[in-house]
Amino acid sequence: MENIDGYLMKYTNLVTGWQYRFFVLNNEAGFLEYFVNEQSRPQKPRGMLPLAGAVISPSDEDSHTFTVNAISGEQYKLRATDAKERQHWVSRLQICTQHHTEAMGKMMSQAQGQHRDLIQSIEGLPAAPGLSPLDQDLLMLKATSMATMNCLNECLHILHLQQVARQRGSLGGPTIEWLEPKLPDILKNGSSSLGSFTTGEGPLEGSRLELSSPESCSFSGQEDISADDEAEDGFSDKEEDLGAVEEERSVILHLLSQLKLGMDLTRVVLPTFILEKRSLLEMYADFMSHPDLFVAITDGSSPEDRMVRFVEYYLTSFHEGRKGAIAKKPYNPIIGESFHCSWKVPRRPEASKEPSQGSPDPAASQEPYQVRFTAEQVSHHPPVSGFYAECQERRMCVNTHVWTKSKFMGMSIGVSMIGEGCLYLLEHDEEYTFTLPCAYARSILTVPWVELGGKVNINCAKSGYSAVITFQTKPFYGGKLHKVTAEVKQNSTNAVVCRVQGEWNGALEFSYTSGEMRVVDVTKLPVTRKSVRPVEKQGPTESRRLWQHVTESLREKDIEKATEHKRLLEERQRTEERHRAETETAWRTRYFDREGEGWVYHKPLWKNSAFKS
Question: Which long-range contacts (CB under 8 A, 24 or more apart) does 606-612 make?
């Protein structure tokens, strides 16, 4: 195998796009390395990908582009000058990948031989005082060696299945389904009578769903949600452990054997037994679980103070979204689905006039502030959600749109939250733009858990302050979980005015240039319960009413029944989508309007003259 080198275009990020880089295929070491240019080749490579177990995928979009997906989950998206050059690189990379993947198998055989030798040596120890094959340390050594070999064998098996699937090209279809109960015959026959269905054991109790006809798939107007109908949320389902993961392990292994590293999972149908009992739209509402910190942002006495307050609110907004240590997936929202709720926030003394000595605090006698939240699924492909929250009394609101894009990363699933949010403080005429971190579901074969990763940027153009937040993923060896760091800067001087370090689901330490330090422990912050209308008062496309039969079945641990209800909802969505395509009818959103590349709430505070300065 000969080494090859040359210039290719590499996709870096949304800002800089495609950049020419000098690539070297190091066949002997099994690495694809790249440099800024050919002259910098004697220096350390700018980056390198191990090719053992990698997947090389020519793009279907054009004849120039291809991707290299390493077993670690890292991906290079590359572009050659023409189809011939792409084929040259792809074929050489595939040969190198196959060679080093097979070498991994040989190394496994050697490791297995060494493992057998270790076991035989321990069990063959001669009887001697103080030395026995049953010594606790020796038994631990045997168990550790056995567990390591089992883990490596399983990983190698999955890797082999991935390679076979790639070579056979068996993943050409648009959707991969989990092994679950098949669709009822009523759906197989293409019937539009989706109101109810029967199983082999008779009618499915409670299966009557409120399905809109294709003609009513778009909304003619907006509905104002009355806060008078809302009551403090009593929905407190605690997610149980995933014992079902062990029971359904063969199902998971079967799916993993068909997936490619880096593969987009948008159209992959997930098994019902890993679902959380709520919609993704409702999960977004957890960003407001500390509404007191949200409304306190505008109380900042200076631009610097307000930026630090926003960073504090931002860092404390993620932990409540995970109800436990185990990762479960919320329901994928149906297009047109919405979720509404609100929070009551007691007025703080500093937000009111100072009481005179001996007189009662006026804040205690005033009505609490109200923070209202609205979320809507505005697009199905790609899956985009819009959500908006406002506090009219404080003249502040936040508007966000998010496209959740997931991909397979070997033993993990990565979810990129693509989009942008903007906080508006109308009292100060300030706008704070911000992005969102990536989320990762780790250890999907055993006990899944969630961590956040990536850099987040917050910027206020008017005040000239910005912040960079870095969510750090755990290193392979050692290191702490859920670490996060942040810096708040004054842009004109590039001076750091505040630093933050700690864990996003634990203690956060704020350090100021003045020498002041303070600690915020998110586990000790009071969580304000949201107020939600009862299901019977909700519209047919509101999250809890829409998914109520799936949720009830999951509570009853009836996975098959939950799966059938879930399939009905998804089939209705597909039926209405086909009808819109046939009649060339555009989908009309209810609460959000498309503006440029984003989605904006239809009645935001900043467009209301009554709330402008």
Answer: 606/397, 606/424, 606/426, 611/392, 611/395, 611/426, 612/426
Nearest Cα residue to 371 out of 404, 397, 409? 397
Three-state DSSP class for residue 525? coil
Q: Is 210 exposed, middle or buried (0-12, 13-18, 19+ CB in 10 A)?
A: exposed
- Contact criterion met (CB below 8 Å) for 94 and 51: no
For the chain, list the domains and their CATH numbers.
4-99 (2.30.29.30), 227-611 (2.40.160.120)
Residue 257 near residue 163, CB atoms below 8 Å? no
* Segment holding 471, helix H or strand E: strand 465-472
Query: Residue 339 and residue 528: Cα distance in Å, rounded?
Result: 18
Q: Could you give the CA distance from residue 275 to residue 255 in angstroms, rounded to a whole number?
A: 17
Q: How far is CA 269 from CA 15, 264, 265, 566, in A?
A: 32, 12, 8, 11
The strand pair at 4-13 and 17-26 is best described as antiparallel
Does pTM surpass 0.90? no
- pLDDT, tens only, 302-341: 999 999 999 999 999 998 876 555 667 889 999 999 999 9
Residue 121: burial class (beta carbons within 10 Å; 0-12, 13-18, 19+):
exposed
Write the pLDDT tens digit of every residue in 48-76. 999 988 888 888 778 899 999 887 778 89
Q: Are 296 and 348 in contact (CB under 8 A)?
A: yes
Residues 6+ apart with CB under 8 A from 241: 326, 447
